[in-house]
Records
---
Amino acid sequence: MSAPSSLPVVGTPAQRAERAVWRAMTLADIPLLAEVAKTAHAHPWRARHFEDSLATGHWCRVLTLPPDPPTDPPQWVHAPRTAQGHWLLSSLVAMRGVDDVHLLDITVTPAHQRQGWGRWMLQALIGWAREQGAACVWLEVRASNTSARALYTAMGWQAVGVRRGYYPDGAHRREDAIVMRLDLLPPPPTEAH
């Protein structure tokens, strides 16, 4: 997807949305992404997961925002910044299959959560998946992650299964994953007899 460098972002103040930068992830981003993942997830991706995703050719994107002290909320002062000094808002990694796309990781930096960035990233993913000719988008989400599940459901994903013990949950426990699917193409017409 050849997205422009600045895109409107749904659900955020207009002055920030106009400045958001949607770009390909680079190796230089990975140390920061791995650090942010530690603060955003109980069992985060490590640097090698991002490195492997880039090396494999997965769709790896980041959303950043150039700083603007007059409009940036004061609580952002300790939020993570990229090497270019931009606020790191979120990251996304997806894998293209034969006729589908699988969301592997999505992370919104904790300082920027509940501001519409996750929804924006998912809309971008859906647009890219359609451009790839995918019939559907798959994901797994922790059974306990009710806020993410609510967002996915609100955006049209449907729970279609459970992977028992899929996620680590402490030293000796595992947590189920809810498998969700978003259909992108209408089903083929049925023949009338």
---
Amino acid sequence: MNKLLSALTPARLKLLLIALPVLLAAVYYYALAADRYVSESIVTVRQANQNAAGAAGAALLLAGISPASREDNLYLRQYIHSLDLLKKLDAELGLRAHYEAETLDPFFRLWAGVSQEWFLEYYRARVEVLFDEVAGLLTVRVQGFEPEFAQKLNAAILRESEAFVNAYSQRMAREQMQFAQGELDRAAERLQAAKNEVLAFQTTHKLLDPTAEAQASGALVAELQAALAKQETELRALRSYLNDDSFQVQALRNQVEALRKQLEAERARATVGPRDVRLNEQAARFQDLMLRARFAEDAYKLALTAVENARIDATRKLKSLVVIESPNLPEDALYPRRLYNLFTLFIVCCLLYGITRLIVATIQEHQD
């Protein structure tokens, strides 16, 4: 132990803990580390304004855009880091070949033959998606060994992101419209069926409106009753001073008898006979059919309004990708930050050297 402590002189500790790590890091950064260029873009997902719900259709379509949806931006961030998008980008741009081409850098290259899981993790480390909670913006930072490739990859990500946003927003709008249209079709079928029942009833009974017929029949019965009462009064008056065999009494008696038969016929027509013949039964059935038809018509109007509202609402809720800053073409390699990393390593090594010197000095003091 004493021999080891005596060998740990300040000069050797400086060489071991400061000079050697810094030298190795310098060799790596300036001889092996590959330049990594970063292309940056800023985007967000927007949708039509929801604050104009009471406006007309044209006003809704001309409304502005609403604040960015946090959920939509999070969905997009997850999609950018998804395996599906990675496969599309690899097929289009050859990501694996590009990241495997840099063979000197052992830490930031993609090793050949790795699984898709490792490739996905490597891709997520090279494509950063930062979400600003306050502004609702997504910042996409793409690393590449060539500036043109970094810009091309960033542009491809934005293009696929726009297709993704359009696809799922249009799918939601289409499903909403399909549901409303299905309800309208069913309401139209019910309305047509109700109309057909009304037409069939009118054709079968040869009546345009049994309710009106019943009302007319009731009015006629009331008139006949009034006329009969008047004629009977006149007949009693004549019989008070004329014989029953007189011409006036006989004529008036015949009129009374005719009115009484007509009144009984009208009453029988309304309330006597089979159910399909009785006027009151026909009127009741016709009112029921008309009630069903009016209800079906109201339901159809509501469904038609719902379809129009769904069309306007679906148009208003269509989402789009808004590019705040297009992918730039980097001029300087942002990574690796050679001087910064070397200086940081030098500070850490100096701290480690100081701690080690303190430990060695403490041990030597206790041994003495």
---
Amino acid sequence: MSELTTHSVLHKRISTFVEWIKPESAKREGIKNRSNKAREKIKNKAESDEYNLVVVATPNAGSFTTKTGLRRHFRGDAEVEGLDVDLPFVIQDDRDGYTLYSLLDIFYKIVDDCYPDVEKERTKSSIKLKFPDKVNLDIVPMLEGENTDEQILVRSTGEKIKTSVKRHVEFIKKRTEDSAKKVGRVKFNECLRLLKWWRDTQANGSYTLGGDDSPPSFLINLLSAKAFDELSVEKTYAETLAMWFGYLAHLVKSKEAILFTDYNSPTKDYALWSVIDPVNPDNNVVKNWSSLKIDELVSWLEHGRDNWNRIIRYDLEGDDSKSMDQLVELFGNSFKNHTS
């Protein structure tokens, strides 16, 4: 691996792909304006006499803020994640708890009042506004917590999860900033983007981890953060991701608990596997995962590890064609189509 250089065909290809999978920079200003207008429109409606809610805050959140989102891209019948902009609305709860247990229902009506002609979809904890240009806004109602940095996320099941939008953003940004201090262009958030795209490629057609059962972006965030914390980044993407995949394959196969000490001192859960939310030590992100789902993720990571080892070998041997074939297995035909 030490022979790999930033001047190789392999590194240039991956660097080109990293740039392509980002949301188009020309659209960022327009997306920001749309988000700001939605914030104002929905906040005004929520605080109107009709609904009489108190919006405490509308913090910046999600992949748009941390610069880890993907461009929207269609591949056959599958749709790569793309850029969903999270818009949290932190609400002051009423005394009898009505808002707490009806928050999603109330906000669906509010969003429908504001955007009657835009397609809407309810998720476990948000109302997704699906605009024709494929840039979605995820309206995420939350209740205020015990302090200004804490919120309560209310799921459709009635589950209440303590969280902190600010701390989750800091968690990702800190690692991106730390990686930027290393020699070379490889940054944490760009590797995270590549893992998200890889996740979407592997999930396409998967029975166990496909569709709604695909590993959520939050889990990919935490897996990437753990790999970065233990291994950092190298000068090239290939070296970095070869190490990350090998490490994560071992970690998941052994069901080793994934813990972070940024904000607290967590312990593993009693579930099959523990990946603990760095902000809320009581939230095990994979508490409901079966052994079948865990084994499938192990298989993905092991295949990815083997792919990267072959990619590097072929690159060092000067066999660019075989290297490309392995990269397409990881990232789909879009890699070939946008790195030539």
---
Amino acid sequence: MNVHSSLDLIPKAGPQRAYGSARLAVKPVNGRTRIATLYQEGCAKIRLPETDSPLLEAVMINTSGGLTGGDEMHWQFEVADDCRAQVTTQACERIYKASAGVADVATVLKVKNQASLAWLPQETILFEASALNRTLVVDLAQSSRALIVEPVVFGRKAMGEDVQNCTFRDRWRIHRNGKLIHAEDFLIGPDAGSMLGRPALIGGMRTMATILLLDADAERYLDKSRKIIGTKGGASFWSGKLLARLIDGDAYLLRKRLVPLIELLNEKAGVPKVWSI
């Protein structure tokens, strides 16, 4: 006869994982953009700083302090007709070493007619042995405008961080009136160090940023964008899309060009104030 301790019947707990989910919808109120609905769960929080602007600014916060393997974050933002909003993060999102699994971040953006949305998160920092799977789905109405910015840092130069092994998958799907108008799939790793050194990728640089402006009139920004970007990157316009890519040796140098580029493309709203905190 086998005798078991009561402790033997308790399942062994694995490492605690972070989970967060948040949704925000906005509506027009007397010529200003204001909250329609707000939901937040787990470590995903949304804060709305008070401003005198008719534009609404939302700040995403991950209260877990960073992500590692097995963590999940889900974000959704909907901008109603005739509204203007921009979404940013309180700080850089840090992707730490993953002992098992992959951090998963999924974002859905919906922008209605005569509305605009600027998606302006601060840098995502990938650490050695990190693993991140990120998806971005954007649904635009015919007369909407969207600015999408995603900067990424592969280890911080000032901290002496050298990323040789990590996995990063980034998938974008953007639709207008239900039709796919832009798709991107970026995958690097696990041997990220040697891949990042290739001239066809970022040539040994540590940082990169993708900027996509979806606006029928976006071509008027092309020449000024190229002057700001300089030789470390490039920009093109076609089919109502201005697409720019920047690379640089560290996050500070990248921001010196990324900030004026956002100020150019984000109409009068400029760069979110939390970027300077």
